[in-house]
Design goal:
The complex is a heterodimer. Chain A is α/β, with parallel strands linked by helices. Chain A contains ten helices and 13 strands. Chain A folds into two domains: 213 residues, P-loop containing nucleotide triphosphate hydrolases (Rossmann fold); 75 residues, Alpha-Beta Plaits, CATH 3.30.70. By secondary structure, chain B is mostly helical. Chain B has one domain. Helix content of chain B is 72%, strand content 3%. In chain B, strand 1 and strand 2 form a beta hairpin. Classes of the chains: A alpha/beta, B mainly alpha. The interface between A and B is medium-sized, with 32 and 27 residues.
Chain lengths: 297, 276
């Protein structure tokens, strides 16, 4: 598999504060990555370093195997970090024309990408007249101008209204479906869960986890069930070593698995004990639950 | 190089205020020609400025470059704000993310500085040439093309001054404060001169302050007024003889070139060191 970005023991110190601490991970072509972490965990700093706007304190990073200089590599990258930054007095089209010049991309891409983000009819409006949602979409159009090998998005839905959030998410899904590698930094977990296949979890600048989303916590999932004989069911489950933990909440019993078990096996097990279920669901921990489990300690 | 200039051109020419300032600057340069039309009539005495010899070759090169240099403040505002605005709009960050290297960023600004200085120099050359051909008493080619070092000095002076503005924009990041600092710096240099003069004498003071950035730039083209024959006549009537060296010296050019190089290097070093 082709490596797009590899980061090796990257560290950034701001005075006493270590914003990024010995961080290492690699980005492979074709995957959608999420960088997760609470505010101030070093997500933006890490992206700033690989994007040539923040100086590293130590460690290394390499774009595309290290054969090109960082600024040349960035011509093959599309990135937006934090707020969209454009010249307020210029029209959308002129702003994109400037980006084309910097990246060395032909101008006919402008119209194409403005259509992708749905701004083609507003291309002659000045950037400062745009709403935040439109600005963010223009930023995405700008990042897509060069048909990038990788698209880097830092909190792309921050500050948007629900409609704007929805539009941006749809756009990201659409781009991911086209096979573009994406690196998405966010503290909104459902955002990452919806689009990412891989995650890197950061806390206080340290890497807690990197890998596939569903392998984040060693877990076999859990059952949610309801039945009329609640106490009996709980007693049965507690005596069974297959379950590590039983929770009761609002008449809903949650049984966490110690080892793999299918729902039909479970159903039969309960039926054999004389318990008839009125509700049964097998689930895996959501990203949020996994994330909280991971960042707890 | 052309790509970098095109980038700066898009940034500048789509900004209404810089467009207005640039246009105003070149219109004002043209207005030097209007001096020619200034007439005074005091009863019997008829006085026309153009006939006092200010448009004589080669004096006109000295006079016009000196006058035109005052207008550089217009372009200074543009240079400072085009640099500082990159910070306030955070577009400097976006430019770097889009794949401009830090050196390319500074270099594109410096190329703009050079273009402004070069266009301005050509403009002054053309205006002076036309005015000279109309009003000059001497029209021999050898006289017309003598003393052209004033144009070189003018170019170097503008380049140095604009590089200083560029550096201040990078350093201070706010155009208003950067321009304020420019004024304060001018005062600082003046105060230094006064302190040195009071401690030693004016010769020592000048020989030290001529190494200061703004002073070195203004030394390139000395005031031409006292070189006018009318002024000399008046001076000799009241018993003064003006002995002053008006020529452009190579070491003065070198001092300004060194400052220019330092300002550009410092701008680059700042950008390299900063976390944006």
């Amino acid at each position: 598999m082709e490596t797009i970005l590899s980061i090796d023991r990257l560290t950034k110190k701001f005075g006493y504060l270590t914003a990024v601490n010995e961080l290492s991970f690699t980005i492979e072509k074709g995957n959608v990555y999420g960088i997760l972490g609470p505010n101030g965990s070093g997500k933006s700093t890490t992206l700033g370093i690989v994007l040539n706007v923040v100086n590293k304190s130590s460690g290394n990073f390499q774009w595309f195997g290290g054969n090109v200089s960082t600024h040349d590599a960035l011509k093959k990258v599309g990135a937006i970090i934090e707020r969209p930054n454009f010249y307020p007095y210029m029209t959308a089209e002129k702003n994109l024309e400037l980006v084309c010049k910097i990246k060395g991309v032909p101008h006919h891409k402008i119209q194409e990408k403005l259509e992708v983000v749905g701004l083609a009819d507003r291309k002659d409006s000045k950037f400062r007249t745009y709403s935040l949602g439109m600005k963010q979409r223009l930023a995405i159009a700008s990042a897509l101008l060069n048909d990038p090998e990788i698209l880097i998005l830092d909190e792309p839905t921050n500050g948007l209204d629900p409609q704007g959030i929805h539009q941006i998410r749809q756009l990201i899904k659409q781009i991911a479906a086209d096979g573009t590698t994406i690196l998405l930094a966010s503290h909104l977990l459902d955002e990452v869960e919806k689009v990412c296949s891989h995650v890197v979890v950061l806390q206080k600048g340290k890497k807690l986890y990197s890998g596939q989303v569903d392998e984040m916590v060693a877990s076999h999932g859990f059952f949610e069930l309801r039945c009329s004989e609640q106490e009996k069911a709980v007693a049965v489950l507690q005596n069974n070593p297959t379950f590590r933990e039983i929770k009761e909440e609002n008449n809903l019993i949650t049984a966490f698995l110690n080892e793999p078990m299918e729902a039909d096996t479970f159903n039969r097990l309960m039926f054999d004990q004389g318990i008839v279920l009125s509700h049964l669901v097998k689930r895996k921990e959501s990203l949020e639950e996994q994330f909280l489990a991971l960042t707890e300690n | 190089m052309l790509r970098l200039l095109q980038i700066e051109y898009i940034k500048l020419w789509n900004n209404r205020s810089s467009k207005v300032l640039i246009t105003a600057y070149f219109v004002l340069l043209l207005c030097i020609a209007l001096i020619a039309t200034v007439n005074f009539d005091f009863g019997e005495i008829h006085f026309q400025v153009a006939e006092q010899g200010i448009f004589n070759f080669p004096y006109i090169w000295h006079f016009n470059t000196y006058i035109a240099a005052w207008l550089k403040l217009f372009l200074a505002i543009i240079i400072v704000s085009m640099t500082a605005n990159e910070y306030s709009n955070k577009t400097i960050k976006q430019n770097l993310i889009d794949g401009l290297s830090k050196w390319e960023f500074i270099y594109s600004k410096f190329l703009t500085v050079l273009s402004f200085a070069a266009i301005s120099t050509v403009f002054v050359f053309v205006v002076s040439m036309v005015l000279g051909l109309i009003y000059s008493d001497y029209n021999e080619a050898s006289i017309i093309f003598s003393d052209l070092e004033y144009l070189l000095a003018y170019f170097i002076k503008l380049t140095g001054f604009f590089s200083f503005c560029l550096f201040l924009g990078m350093l201070i990041k706010r155009s208003a404060f950067a321009l304020g600092f420019l004024v304060i710096w001018q005062i600082i240099e003046g105060v230094f001169y006064l302190i040195l003069r009071s401690q030693f004498n004016s010769d020592t003071a000048s020989s030290v302050t001529r190494f200061f950035p703004l002073n070195s730039m203004s030394n390139l083209i000395k005031e031409p007024g006292s070189r006018l024959s009318a002024v000399r006549t008046v001076a000799s009537q009241i018993g003064e003889t003006i002995t002053k060296d008006y020529s452009v010296h190579w070491y003065e050019i070198v001092i300004v070139l060194i400052w220019t190089a330092l300002f550009i290097y410092w701008s680059y070093a700042l950008l390299k060191k900063r976390d944006l």
